[in-house]
Design goal:
Alpha-Beta Plaits; 3 helices; four-stranded antiparallel beta sheet; oxidoreductase; alpha+beta; 34% strand; AI-2_Isomerase_LsrG; monooxygenase activity
């Protein structure tokens, strides 16, 4: 499986707009995309306006398919202007707890 961890520092005062766009995107991704196994939205407790997205996909092609969905494109249209800085870690998932069920 393939994972991305997206660290996003928002412009001050944009938290609510970010969450209004990102939370429905995360929910729809797991609900509607067979290749998306996890999409967690995490808010840093110590650093204001810092968020982490933890996303697990079957493979890189599933992530590419995610980026073509209406819910992804709608969220990006909102959040792009809210981002002050963003970094992405790309990784292979060695284990999940509990294990992710494979799609048959």
């Amino acid at each position: 499986m393939y994972c991305i961890i997206v660290q996003t520092r928002l412009k001050p005062g944009t938290r609510d707009r970010f969450l209004e766009a990102m939370l429905p995107n995360a929910e729809a991704s797991v609900r509607d995309e067979p290749g998306c196994h996890a999409f967690d939205v995490i808010e840093d407790r110590d650093t204001p306006d810092l968020f982490h997205l933890y996303e697990i996909y079957t493979d890189q092609q599933a992530l590419a398919a995610h980026k073509e969905t209406p819910h992804y494109q709608a969220s990006r249209a909102v959040v792009n202007e809210l981002i002050a800085e963003q970094q992405v870690i790309r990784a292979d998932v060695l284990a999940t707890n509990p294990p992710v069920r494979s799609q048959a």
